[in-house]
Amino acid sequence: MSTVVKSLNRAMHELLEDPRVVFLGEDILDPYGGAFKVAKGLSTQFPERVITTPIAEAGFVGIAAGMAMRGMRPIVEIMFGDFLMLTADQILNHIAKYRWMYNDQVEVPIVIRAAMGGRRGYGPTHSQSVEKHFLGMPGIVILAPSPFHDPGSLLKTATLDDSRPVLFIENKLMYSRALKNEADGNCGDFSIRKTDSEYTTVSLSYDTFQSADVTIVAYGGMAELAVEAAEMLMIEEEIFAEVIIPSSIKPLDYDPIIASLERSQKLVVCEEASKAAGWGSEVISRITKDHFGLLKSAPQHVGALEFPIANTVTLEEKILPQVKDIFDAAISK
Amino acid sequence: MSTVVKSLNRAMHELLEDPRVVFLGEDILDPYGGAFKVAKGLSTQFPERVITTPIAEAGFVGIAAGMAMRGMRPIVEIMFGDFLMLTADQILNHIAKYRWMYNDQVEVPIVIRAAMGGRRGYGPTHSQSVEKHFLGMPGIVILAPSPFHDPGSLLKTATLDDSRPVLFIENKLMYSRALKNEADGNCGDFSIRKTDSEYTTVSLSYDTFQSADVTIVAYGGMAELAVEAAEMLMIEEEIFAEVIIPSSIKPLDYDPIIASLERSQKLVVCEEASKAAGWGSEVISRITKDHFGLLKSAPQHVGALEFPIANTVTLEEKILPQVKDIFDAAISK
Amino acid sequence: MSKNDTFQEKLYRQMFLIRHFEERLLELFSEGAFFGTTHCYIGQEANAVAIINQLTDKDIVFSNHRCHGHFLTYSDKPELLYGELMGRSTGVVGGRGGSQHICYNNFYTNGIQGGIMPAATGMAFAEKIKKSGAIATVFIGDGTLGQGVVYESLNMASLWDVPVLVVVENNRWAQSSRVENELAGSMVKRGEAFGIDSGEIDSTDAEELYAHFTPIIEKVRREQRPHFEVIHTYRLCHHSKSDDARPKDEVERYRENEPLPKMRERLKASTAEAIESDVKKRIAEAIAWAREQPFPELQKTELV
Amino acid sequence: MSKNDTFQEKLYRQMFLIRHFEERLLELFSEGAFFGTTHCYIGQEANAVAIINQLTDKDIVFSNHRCHGHFLTYSDKPELLYGELMGRSTGVVGGRGGSQHICYNNFYTNGIQGGIMPAATGMAFAEKIKKSGAIATVFIGDGTLGQGVVYESLNMASLWDVPVLVVVENNRWAQSSRVENELAGSMVKRGEAFGIDSGEIDSTDAEELYAHFTPIIEKVRREQRPHFEVIHTYRLCHHSKSDDARPKDEVERYRENEPLPKMRERLKASTAEAIESDVKKRIAEAIAWAREQPFPELQKTELV
Ligand SMILES: Cc1ncc(C[n+]2csc(CCOP(=O)(O)OP(=O)(O)O)c2C)c(N)n1
Ligand SMILES: Cc1ncc(C[n+]2csc(CCOP(=O)(O)OP(=O)(O)O)c2C)c(N)n1
Ligand SMILES: [Mg+2]
Ligand SMILES: [Mg+2]
User: Fold this and answer.
1) What is the 3-state secondary structure (H, E, C) of chain D?
2) pTM above 0.95, yes or no
3) For chain C, what are the domain ranges?
4) Distance in Å, CA D177 to ligand 4 centroid
5) Quick check: D96 and D109 in contact, CB under 8 A?
6) Which residues on adjacent β-strands are paired with residue B78?
7) Phi and psi, residue D143, nearest 5°
8) pLDDT tens for residues A244-263?
9) How far does the centroid of ligand 1 lie from the alpha carbon of residue A46, in Å?
10) Other CB atoms closer than 10 Å to residue B157's CB: what's the count?
11) Is the pLDDT higher at B235 or at D242?
12) Is C238 helix (H, G, I), strand (E, B) or coil?
């Protein structure tokens, strides 16, 4: 059975065969192999291009960017995605800008992998999904694999075929999840469709994409929760949900969402971060701006409450969005 | 004639009379008095509590936060708001979190003033409006004075009466603008209303708030552009616009916006930053989520294009939003 | 803490409290009584007791992810920390922060490496401006010397004559990384380069460390200037719960240098035993108390 | 540049080019021919010519906001920089970047103080891995030593044996701030603390600086290690266009130490005059050329 972490680890092994690929991050050497074990085995096999760093996120992200500008294909691991905030200046004012600001004379093909998300009791500074703070930066791509995509092949495309800077968001709980298999156009009880693009969007339907009562959009760690909610909606309410799972949240391919909304006319957007100024705000705003009249009821936004993410489970559970919240949003009038 | 910079400078003088107030920033000593002169005269009058800093934005914002946690009321100046990205970790993972994470045992009453915005040919790293990257952080307030508010009194309230961390966004072009006077419920050709709250929202109407064809929401540097657009709309198209100018963009008081939309049913939201995941996305999304059915046409979003802000005027003008863009959005069907 | 303890007994009691607190913590973790992860201080206890005992009530302590030893010395409240680690509403910060993010009187911690340096510096600076006489002590690890904000803070602390004592606990590892893979040059020179008096000591002897820090703390208070001091020590436990890939023989070599036996052998065996059984009783009671505490409810109003 | 120049003539010609470029720039600014702001290098010309002349075509230079001197020495293309400062599509980066954000072959700049250090380090690191033989030189100012990311970079450059030469141009002021208000301790020790060979020189003599840097550059290339060198110099112009509140007598004192007269007096007066009139002609042509260039259009596709 392959899991997300296995898929990523295998991809990293394959990627490092390419002499342009270099991998930097904290505590990534064997035998430890990185905090979430995506790095296992790499330093043993590629000792020269697997470089464990000091605790200096801005510095090593910036160093990797310099390497990218000189023909390498660096991959950086941010141990806890929360620490990405330390690199915000390097990303906005350096990495995202160089290509255009230098009149397209350079490229910065860096991939920054970051472990995001809560539900593990790691507390306020080790549980966030901070990608929302980077969504508004012109010039960067943000990818978020899920068990419904092939995380390893996404990582390979991002590293070798994409010359733009990429943030690669890995939900921590997702690492150990089994990849979802697809056979004959089905994935479990759902029909499945995938867009034909480098960073595919997966659409799941209970009704072979004939009709739908609600369109649920979710990425990364929220994807499986959305699917669970869809199952509950079917069983408890006989509501047919379609679940749309993009692998690229920036840029976002709106076509599969709009195609589904043309059937359902009801939208639920999910994210693990707190809702304010989140990814869902952007999605809801874009759909209302560009497809006004498509929705027949208020768009719904599922996300965390506006608090730091508490350490204790009773608070963390209430603060972070749950399956039940998606379910409730989907049945709301 | 009072201007925004004079109003802020006077307020700083008054604030520093309070022994808890301390002022930190780069190049704020006399005779230089800060890059945009808000600091003029302060170090001469209050040499002990006006502290010029090294070029170390994360460090001195963090130091000010520590002072705030020990009973001081620090004000920090970020010379160019672009450099706020260097403080993103200090703001998200320290300043915004301490109060709640420490179970409400502490407060962090810091005010971080930052000069934002373009239109001066300062180029990609000195022209941005980066407040959008901070909108989604639970625990901080973001204020944006304009000539329609009293910038100095906002600053005083934020410093002395608000125990929460405040980002205080000052548009650079706005500094030299005259404060807009209000008399007998009028401001120029407009009727004016102000909400009765600590951080007031100003509403302007051509028709004594009887009827309106469009509601234009704008803050900071975009406020005067919105008003110009409203004038053009009146003169060229006989369209009655109401302009809503909040001084607090986070939290945002939706009441005056909704009140206006009940008359106009058409929304235009303006910001100087690029539109993707911007403030306007949040506003449009919140209004559609919470007041579905209120709008009778697609909400409009005016903002910069998704590029770095170029140095040369021909590109900068095209990238940044202009009066004409607001006008066009307002007359769009 | 017992009022009748001699100085040595007190140090031993405190170190044993930290040690036993953590040993029980690690045992109980497997039961699922605790949340998330935790970073133990086993092997470094001498540092906390040597320094924190010399501070006044007004003084500030800023600690990091590895804060149990500092907190227990500062507060002598194991039950509050157990409560916190169990996520209870009566824990140090009501279950909100967990082990890395606590606050108790003038004691603070945060889990972002290095990010605490400016806050600690600012706190000390505020106390100086307020003329309260308080100083701040901030504890960081060897690995944390990788973070740039540490140097921004040292520069300003030195420029502005801030009474902050920076204690680097060099336990020779940062998570899974040897200090040699993390740090180039010299630790002490990192302080000196900013015009800050800096020094180092290689010891796990609480009494020796205590004596070493007496003039340092006194000087920070008197001169109202920063000081940077490195303690070379060793972490004998995992980095967090279950991650230790260090060479076994290296760990065993340092185990001979443990702070607790060193102090215990200066006590009468019966005294040591009495202290140990006292502490064990306290710890058992603290655990029992914490287990009975309620979980917190979420307040209704979201933050702005 | 003239092929027949002696060494001294070449250095003088380059320095005079920088100087005259900027003097004309400042004059023309009032006409509104330029955008935004600009940071001149007047007084520091000797540094650029002493160092950049010794680099190979493959070598990398990373400069900062005050980059005219570095760029002109590197490229010898005044017209491209005028074009850029006038916002023209044929300027160094097509008008997009402006004076602080340019890129030309292996020459780069950015306007965020200190933020360029990691990129420069990474570039040198990449060249080392690629075995290209290239090294990187990065120029920063005294004030920029306030930024933490500088130290993160020094640490990694030292740990990983990166062939990067860090040149600190200490012009004794950072914008309106005296170095004493910005910097505690010692500049040279800031490099040494990271195990990096570090040194300093107080000179505005281009030949002396050239000789000083010859073995340093050679060593960085040979040893494939970083080096940190401080040049004590002085800025004789405003920080940017019109902001100078420094004591007049201080500026006048340093004016006696100007790099250009020092070199000029080693040339025959007639040679110097010939060089000057040559350069003036080039500059006039460069300005004329730049004025004729078109403004850029905005490409249609927005970035992601
Ligand atoms: C900014 C940041 N980066 C990374 C981490 C993850 N992390 C937690 S502890 C640790 C090692 C710290 O080493 P050191 O400073 O030596 O302290 P020690 O754990 O040895 O006490 C790391 C890398 C973090 N908490 N913060
Ligand atoms: C991160 C950052 N903070 C502040 C500034 C504003 N700024 C531009 S130049 C400058 C002074 C730089 O001083 P120094 O490093 O000594 O270089 P010099 O200007 O003297 O050449 C400042 C503060 C900036 N560009 N970047
Ligand atoms: Mg350590
Ligand atoms: Mg300088």
Assistant:
1) CCCCCCHHHHHHHHHHHHHHHHHHHHHHHCCCCCCCCCCCCCCCHHHHHHHHCCCCCCCEEEECCCCHHHHHHHHCCHHHHHHHHCCCCCCCCCCCCCCCCCEECCEEECCCCCCHHHHHHHHHHHHHHCCCCCCEEEEEECHHHHCHHHHHHHHHHHHCCCCEEEEEEECCEECCEEHHHHCCCCHHHHHHCCCCEEEEEECCCHHHHHHHHHHHHHHHHHHHCCEEEEEECCCCCCCCCCCCCCCHHHHHHHHCCCHHHHHHCCCCHHHHHHHHHHHHHHHHHHHHHHHHCCCCCCCCCCCC
2) yes
3) 7-292
4) 9
5) no
6) B114
7) -65, -30
8) 999 999 999 999 999 999 99
9) 25
10) 19
11) B235
12) coil
Q: In the sheet that A241-246 helps form, which strands lie side by side, from edge to edge?
A: A186-187, A190-194, A201-205, A241-246, A214-217, A267-274, A300-304
In our burial notation (b when 16+ CB lie closer than 10 A, e otherwise), range A281-312 reads bbbbbbbbbebeebbeebbbbbbbbbbbbbbb
d(CA C294, CA C94): 10
* Residue C291 contacts A where some CB pair is shorter than 8 Å: no
Nearest by CB to residue A164, choosing from D152, D160, D304, is: D304
Q: Is the pLDDT of residue C31 over 90?
A: no
Provide the token pair at D253: 């004192």
The DSSP string of A133-193 is GGTT-TT-EEE---TTS-HHHHHHIIIII--S-EEEEEEGGGGGSBPPP-BTTEETTEEEE
Q: What is the DSSP letter of A18?
A: S
> HSE (CB half, 13 Å, CA atoms) of C16?
24
Ligand 1 atom at minimum distance from C239 CA: 19
Nearest to B274 among A134, A138, A289 (CB): A138
d(CA C234, CA D204): 50
What is residue D1's predicted lDDT score, i.e. its pLDDT?
56
Contacts of D252 (CB under 8 A, 6+ apart): none
Q: Do B63 and C149 touch (CB under 8 A)?
A: no
Distance (angstroms) between ligand 3 centre and the Cα of B318 equals 52
pLDDT band at C243; cut points 50, 70, 90: confident
Taking an 8 Å cut-off on Cβ atoms, the answer to whether B32 and D110 are in contact is: no
Work out whether strand B267-274 and strand B214-217 pair parallel, antiparallel, or are unpaired. parallel
Which residues share a beta bridge with A269?
A: A217, A301
CB-based burial of residue B207 (10 Å sphere; 0-12 exposed, 13-18 middle, 19+ buried)? Answer: middle
- Is the shortest distance between the CB of D66 and ligand 2 below 6 Å? yes
Query: Which of A48, A63, A71 minimises the CB distance to D130?
Result: A71
**What number of other Cβ atoms are within 10 A of residue B23's Cβ?**
27
pLDDT tens-digit series, residues C141-192? 999 999 999 999 999 999 999 999 999 999 999 999 999 999 999 999 999 9
What does the alpha-carbon distance between residue B192 and residue B198 come to, in Å, rounded to a whole number? 17
Topology (CATH) of D7-292: Rossmann fold (3.40.50)
- Residue ranges of domains in chain B, CATH in brackets: 4-174 (3.40.50.970), 186-331 (3.40.50.920)
Q: What average pLDDT does this structure show over B300-306?
A: 98
Tokens of C190: 């990192």
**Look-up of token digits 């992860």:** C37
How many angstroms separate the CA atoms of D19 and B292, rounded? 64
User: Structure tokens of C161?
Assistant: 């004559």
